[in-house]
Amino acid sequence: MITRLAAQIVKELLSLLRDPKSRLTLIVPPLMQLFVFSFAATLEVTNVSVAVLNDDAGRWSREMIQRLEGAEFVGRLVYVETPAELGTLIDRREALAAVHFPADFSRDVGRGQPASAQVLLDGRRANSSQITFGYLNAIAAGLGAELVQATGFGLPEVAVRHWFNPNLIYRWFLVPSLSGMLAMLMALVVTALSIARERELGTFDQLLVSPAQPLEIIIGKTVPALLIGTVLGSVMISAGVLAFRIPFTGSVLWLLMSLMLFILSIVGIGLMVSSVCRTQQHAILGTFSLAIPIVLISGFTTPIENMPDWLQLIARASPLKYYLIIVRGTFLKALPAAEIFANAWPMALIAVVTLTSAIVIVKRKLQ
Amino acid sequence: MSAVQIETAQRSLDRGRLFALVRKETLQVVRDPAAILIAFVLPIVLLFLFAFAVSLDVRDVKLGVVLESDAVQAQSLAAAFSATRYFVVTPARDRREIEPQLISGDVHGMVVIPQDFDLRLASAERGPLVQIITDGTQPNTASFVGGYAEGVVTGWLAGQRGGTRALLRLEPRYWFNAELASRRALIPGAIAIVMAMIGTLLTALVVAREWERGTMEALMSTPVSILEIFLGKLLPYFGLGLIATLGCGLAAIVLFDVPLRGSWLALLLLTCTFLVPALGQGLLISALARNQFVAAQVALITAFLPALLLSGFLFEVDSMPFLIRALTQIVAARYFVASLQTVFLAGDVWGLFVPNMLAMLAIGAVFFTIAARKTHKSLDT
Q: Cβ–Cβ of A339/B104 closer than 8 Å?
């Protein structure tokens, strides 16, 4: 039985790696994506175009504008003459924010009265415009504080410290998460097609009439996918440490074991889909319909806490959710073993349930 | 050149033949329940997921408040934290109680009100009033916690000291989305991403299957020209994509309360334009891959993920490094995301639509040209 199993595993590995095109798509794109996306995805807002309409001839609006010009987040300042132009720039997304200084702006400041300028923001880009307004507000508050200080009031200090990632570098958050997601997508596609392809090509019937047991068939399909997913995940984690210089504070061994468990649970999901589907096309569609929800509810794009409660409940079925906690924590927080275990057992449970179902389904096909 | 090729070159588009092909493909689509599922059910399901799962509205952030001081004022500040609707407070007397929770992710930050709080309050020389520690592993939440906690302290101080008003004020007005509902801003973009994925994936798979099964060669040996094969394949999916997008649009308006401030005509035109590069990309993938396994992977990698991450849906394109910004120019979803956000939330801004449509058509034209070239070559060999 061992030799039979070994032969099957070798056969599955060969069928995956023999074709140079599929060999290439397994390895190169995920790594390329890791690099492109980790530079693309940032919630910091920089290089913003800001429009300015200044109806005020005084000193304080000029002072504000000068600070805007010097501000790091501003990529381009556009000066306009009329409110209509301001509107057009925002409409066409040529400016994310527009500052309008009214005619009495400097006069009010000079008289010690609160002066206000209007800021128009592009609500289509709700998040970026909020962040931009925060930056603008900080500039105004800075200038305002200087004015106030001149009259004898100091601002109280609050010390804010960010643990684990003092400068809040978004890449430190994203690269570990991406490594998990990309390894997952690859493992999922590889397994989802495996049984469905054999069925479409008719070779699955041959497999069924061979002495191989359903358990062996499933193991034969599981091991190569597990291997590929784990290798890919490890390579990307290494890239995070070596190329992106992200601090790695936790235990390599625990992370590797969690990665394998995670990939195993994904392989289980893929095999379950594959054993149900009759054609590759259905298997791919099934995989997509599962992969996207798994990614979306895992906290990969936005935190799970922001979701409604019923969705948070569903999110517990997403293995990626647990792996993300482990991989992010192992990189930055030196996640203790107890926490790793708390997040590992749900993945183990998912793996057991899905792999068993796959075996049961294949067995039923056999009869 | 063989006789067949000369003939197809001369008569590359015959209406009768095209009609027959379109009819055949349409029947194939209609009879395949999976195609119907992916074109009608999947988009709505995905839209639902995007609407609820992707939310940048931070709410109910768990925060530990460590009260080391017994002073009345310290307790009043702690109460101010409990009173805000953004935080769910875990009270503690010792920061060591909260630290493990910060590591396990049970709280996202902690506010430490020090033992000598009342002394610090009285004299500014004793250093910062309170310390705010956040979990930096989630940068977005961390900066939110830092900013809001700071705001709570300043607000509380202003209340204590009888309120000093800021001398310079900026009054924000958010156009198109006054309540700043992130769901409203995200749904139009989500439609673009769902359609980018479905349009590309569906065509990539359908054509790759023909290649894999050898029926493509069979089709080519008939008098049908390549243009007709492409059109015959794509027109039914074009229709499917159009109906699916409009269905999503309707769902957005009816179910998620997204306004359609522009016209249906603009929405229709934009959708038609976007389907050109989306289907073209699928066709190109299948022409290059010729095998469903590779085609599915390439579609996932070149359609779904770029649409999600490089289109400006979540991350601001202007803020990306130069090289990646250049790369986003060839992501058709980028233009569709901006256009859909505008047609839903702002109105018919043709000054924005026209350049975006031209860009999408140009990308589509490139995809189709390469796909046609690749298909020609293979016949010659």
A: yes
Which chain A residues contact residue B124 at CB under 8 A? Answer: 154, 156-157
Kindly report the length of chain A.
367
**Does B188 share its domain with B296?**
yes
Distance CA A258, CA A323 (A): 7
Task: Report the distance separating Cα B31 and Cα B139, nearest Å.
Answer: 49
Q: Which residues constitute the domain of residue B47?
A: 3-54+181-380
- Test A144 with B168 for CB contact under 8 angstroms: yes
| Whole-angstrom distance, CA of residue A171 vs CA of residue A161 | 19
For residue A163, count other CB atoms closer than 10 A to its CB. 18
User: Where along chain A do its domains lie?
Assistant: 2-41+166-366, 48-150
d(CA B284, CA B286): 5
**pLDDT (tens digit per residue) in B197-256:** 888 888 888 788 888 777 777 777 777 777 788 888 888 888 888 888 888 999 899 988
B181 vs A contacts (CB less than 8 Å): 126
Q: Is A335 helix (H, G, I), strand (E, B) or coil?
A: coil
The residues, any chain, with a CB within 8 Å of residue B3's CB and separated by 6 or more, are none
Q: Report residue B366 as tokens.
A: 């490139």
Same domain for B193 and B335?
yes
Rounded-to-integer distance, Cα B296 and Cα B195, Å: 16
Q: Is B124 found in the same domain as B45?
A: no
Say if residue B379's pLDDT is above 70: no
Q: Please tell me the total count of domains within chain B.
A: 2
Would you state the pLDDT for residue B381?
Answer: 45
B298 and B330 both lie in a single domain: yes
CB contact under 8 A, A285 and B171: no
CB contact under 8 A, A121 and B153: no
Nearest by CB to residue B169, choosing from A116, A128, A193, is A116
What predicted TM-score, i.e. pTM, was given to this entire model?
0.83
Burial of A14 (0-12, 13-18, 19+ CB in 10 A): exposed
| Percent helix, strand and coil across chain A, each to the nearest 5 | 70, 10, 20
Q: Which residues contact A14 (CB under 8 A, 6 or more apart)?
A: none
Together in a domain, B219 and B320? yes
Structural class in CATH, domain A48-150:
alpha beta
Listed as ranges, residues in chain A with pLDDT below 50 are 151-154
Whether B7 and B134 share a structural domain: no
Length of chain B: 381
B46 within some domain: yes
What distances in angstroms separate CA B49 from CA B52, B193, B333, one per listed residue?
5, 12, 19
